[in-house]
Protein backbone atom coordinates (compact mmCIF):
# COMPACT_ATOMS: atom_id res chain seq x y z
CA UNK A 1 0.00 0.00 0.00
CA UNK A 2 1.33 3.42 -0.93
CA UNK A 3 1.43 6.24 1.55
CA UNK A 4 -0.54 9.39 0.77
CA UNK A 5 1.50 12.57 0.92
CA UNK A 6 -0.68 15.50 1.89
CA UNK A 7 1.61 18.47 1.25
CA UNK A 8 4.55 18.97 -1.06
CA UNK A 9 6.38 21.41 -3.26
CA UNK A 10 5.33 21.39 -6.90
CA UNK A 11 5.83 24.91 -8.16
CA UNK A 12 3.73 26.31 -5.31
CA UNK A 13 2.14 25.09 -2.11
CA UNK A 14 -1.40 23.76 -1.96
CA UNK A 15 -1.76 23.95 1.78
CA UNK A 16 -5.41 22.92 2.02
CA UNK A 17 -6.56 19.37 1.39
CA UNK A 18 -9.00 19.53 -1.50
CA UNK A 19 -7.57 22.79 -2.86
CA UNK A 20 -7.36 23.10 -6.63
CA UNK A 21 -3.99 24.15 -8.05
CA UNK A 22 -2.63 24.62 -11.55
CA UNK A 23 -0.04 21.95 -12.34
CA UNK A 24 2.23 22.17 -15.37
CA UNK A 25 3.80 19.36 -17.32
CA UNK A 26 5.50 18.41 -20.55
CA UNK A 27 6.85 15.65 -22.71
CA UNK A 28 10.53 14.67 -22.31
CA UNK A 29 11.97 17.24 -24.74
CA UNK A 30 9.61 20.05 -23.70
CA UNK A 31 8.19 20.63 -27.20
CA UNK A 32 4.69 19.75 -25.87
CA UNK A 33 3.53 21.49 -22.70
CA UNK A 34 0.27 21.49 -20.80
CA UNK A 35 -1.36 22.57 -17.56
CA UNK A 36 -4.26 21.21 -15.55
CA UNK A 37 -6.33 22.27 -12.56
CA UNK A 38 -5.94 19.40 -10.08
CA UNK A 39 -7.22 18.93 -6.55
CA UNK A 40 -4.95 18.01 -3.66
CA UNK A 41 -4.08 15.22 -3.24
CA UNK A 42 -3.94 14.21 -6.91
CA UNK A 43 -5.80 10.96 -7.53
CA UNK A 44 -3.67 8.59 -9.63
CA UNK A 45 -4.33 5.15 -11.02
CA UNK A 46 -2.51 2.58 -13.12
CA UNK A 47 -4.20 0.40 -15.73
CA UNK A 48 -3.56 -3.19 -16.79
CA UNK A 49 -4.35 -2.75 -20.50
CA UNK A 50 -1.62 -3.58 -23.00
CA UNK A 51 -0.54 -0.05 -23.88
CA UNK A 52 -0.62 1.33 -20.32
CA UNK A 53 1.43 -1.55 -18.96
CA UNK A 54 4.03 -1.31 -21.71
CA UNK A 55 4.44 2.48 -21.32
CA UNK A 56 4.14 2.73 -17.51
CA UNK A 57 1.38 5.34 -17.79
CA UNK A 58 0.04 6.62 -14.44
CA UNK A 59 -3.41 8.13 -15.01
CA UNK A 60 -4.72 11.44 -13.72
CA UNK A 61 -8.13 11.82 -15.38
CA UNK A 62 -9.55 15.33 -15.65
CA UNK A 63 -12.54 17.03 -17.30
CA UNK A 64 -11.89 18.80 -20.59
CA UNK A 65 -12.39 22.21 -18.94
CA UNK A 66 -9.56 21.55 -16.44
CA UNK A 67 -6.89 20.78 -19.08
CA UNK A 68 -5.01 23.06 -21.49
CA UNK A 69 -2.31 22.37 -24.08
CA UNK A 70 -0.08 25.43 -23.75
CA UNK A 71 2.57 24.59 -26.35
CA UNK A 72 3.22 22.14 -29.16
CA UNK A 73 -0.26 21.15 -30.38
CA UNK A 74 1.17 20.84 -33.91
CA UNK A 75 3.97 18.60 -32.57
CA UNK A 76 1.53 15.86 -31.51
CA UNK A 77 0.86 12.73 -33.51
CA UNK A 78 -2.07 10.37 -32.89
CA UNK A 79 -2.19 6.60 -32.53
CA UNK A 80 -5.34 4.50 -32.22
CA UNK A 81 -5.93 0.76 -31.98
CA UNK A 82 -8.67 -1.75 -31.19
CA UNK A 83 -11.95 0.27 -30.99
CA UNK A 84 -10.26 3.52 -32.09
CA UNK A 85 -12.03 5.49 -29.33
CA UNK A 86 -8.90 6.33 -27.35
CA UNK A 87 -6.76 9.00 -29.01
CA UNK A 88 -3.17 8.36 -27.93
CA UNK A 89 -1.11 11.51 -28.54
CA UNK A 90 2.69 11.40 -28.73
CA UNK A 91 5.30 14.12 -29.14
CA UNK A 92 6.73 13.85 -32.67
CA UNK A 93 10.18 14.81 -31.37
CA UNK A 94 10.73 12.60 -28.28
CA UNK A 95 7.87 10.09 -28.55
CA UNK A 96 6.49 10.64 -25.03
CA UNK A 97 2.75 10.36 -24.38
CA UNK A 98 2.18 13.01 -21.71
CA UNK A 99 -1.63 12.94 -22.07
CA UNK A 100 -4.36 11.49 -24.27
CA UNK A 101 -8.12 11.11 -24.74
CA UNK A 102 -8.93 7.81 -22.99
CA UNK A 103 -11.56 5.32 -24.10
CA UNK A 104 -13.01 5.36 -20.59
CA UNK A 105 -13.38 9.15 -20.61
CA UNK A 106 -13.42 10.40 -24.23
CA UNK A 107 -14.89 13.73 -23.08
CA UNK A 108 -11.88 14.37 -20.82
CA UNK A 109 -8.14 13.82 -20.66
CA UNK A 110 -5.80 11.38 -18.98
CA UNK A 111 -2.51 12.96 -17.95
CA UNK A 112 0.56 10.87 -17.25
CA UNK A 113 1.44 11.79 -13.65
CA UNK A 114 5.09 11.09 -14.52
CA UNK A 115 4.99 14.09 -16.89
CA UNK A 116 3.84 16.58 -14.23
CA UNK A 117 6.47 19.00 -12.90
CA UNK A 118 7.54 17.82 -9.47
CA UNK A 119 6.69 14.13 -9.91
CA UNK A 120 7.20 11.97 -7.80
CA UNK A 121 7.20 14.54 -4.99
CA UNK A 122 3.61 15.59 -5.61
CA UNK A 123 0.76 14.98 -3.15
CA UNK A 124 -0.63 11.77 -4.66
CA UNK A 125 -3.47 9.48 -3.65
CA UNK A 126 -3.12 6.07 -5.29
CA UNK A 127 -6.35 4.20 -6.00
CA UNK A 128 -6.77 0.57 -7.11
CA UNK A 129 -5.54 -0.20 -10.63
CA UNK A 130 -8.13 -0.25 -13.40
CA UNK A 131 -8.42 -3.73 -14.95
CA UNK A 132 -7.94 -2.68 -18.55
CA UNK A 133 -7.37 -6.28 -19.69
CA UNK A 134 -11.05 -6.94 -18.89
CA UNK A 135 -12.24 -3.43 -19.82
CA UNK A 136 -15.79 -4.30 -20.85
CA UNK A 137 -16.55 -5.98 -17.51
CA UNK A 138 -15.29 -3.16 -15.26
CA UNK A 139 -17.42 -0.58 -13.47
CA UNK A 140 -17.56 2.67 -15.41
CA UNK A 141 -15.08 5.39 -14.54
CA UNK A 142 -16.77 7.89 -16.88
CA UNK A 143 -17.56 10.13 -13.88
CA UNK A 144 -13.86 11.03 -13.64
CA UNK A 145 -14.08 13.39 -16.61
CA UNK A 146 -17.20 15.15 -15.33
CA UNK A 147 -16.87 18.51 -13.64
CA UNK A 148 -15.79 18.41 -9.94
CA UNK A 149 -18.08 16.39 -7.73
CA UNK A 150 -17.88 14.76 -4.30
CA UNK A 151 -17.52 11.15 -5.62
CA UNK A 152 -13.95 11.73 -6.69
CA UNK A 153 -11.41 14.15 -5.30
CA UNK A 154 -10.13 14.96 -8.80
CA UNK A 155 -13.53 15.90 -10.26
Give the secondary structure arrangement, pairings included:
Layout: E1 20-26, E2 33-39, E3 42-44, H1 50-55, E4 59-63, E5 67-71, E6 76-79, E7 87-91, E8 99-101, E9 108-112, E10 124-126
Parallel strand pairs: 3-10
Antiparallel strand pairs: 1-2, 2-5, 4-9, 6-7, 7-8, 8-9
Descriptive account of the structure:
There is one protein chain. The protein has 155 residues and is mostly beta strands. 4% of the residues lie in helices and 30% in strands. Strands 4-9-8-7-6 form a 5-stranded antiparallel β-sheet, with no helix packed on it. The protein is globular, with a radius of gyration of 15 Å.
Short description:
With 155 residues, the protein is mostly beta strands.
Quick tags:
single chain, 155 residues, mainly beta, five-stranded antiparallel beta sheet, three-stranded antiparallel beta sheet, 1 helix, 10 strands, 4% helix, disordered N terminus, disordered C terminus
Q: Which regions contain 5 or more consecutive residues with pLDDT less than 50?
A: 1-12, 149-155
* Main β-sheet description: 5 strands, antiparallel
The N- and C-terminal alpha carbons lie at a distance of: 23 Å
> Mean pLDDT score, rounded?
86
- Rg value: 15 Å
| Extended strand count | 10
In quaternary terms, these chains amount to single chain
Q: Would you tell me the structural class of the helices and strands? A: mainly beta
Determine the fraction of residues in helical runs and give it as a percent range.
under 10%
Based on Cα principal axes, name the global outline.
globular
| Helix run count | 1
Instruction: Bin the strand percentage.
Output: 25-35%
Q: How do the strands line up in the largest sheet?
A: 4-9-8-7-6
What string, H for helix and E for strand, traces the elements in order? EEEHEEEEEEE
Amino acid sequence: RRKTIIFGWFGRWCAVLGASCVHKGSCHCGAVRFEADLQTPIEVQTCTCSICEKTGFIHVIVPNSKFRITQGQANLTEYTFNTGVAKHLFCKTCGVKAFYRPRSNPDGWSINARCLEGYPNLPLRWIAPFDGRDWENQPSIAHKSEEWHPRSQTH
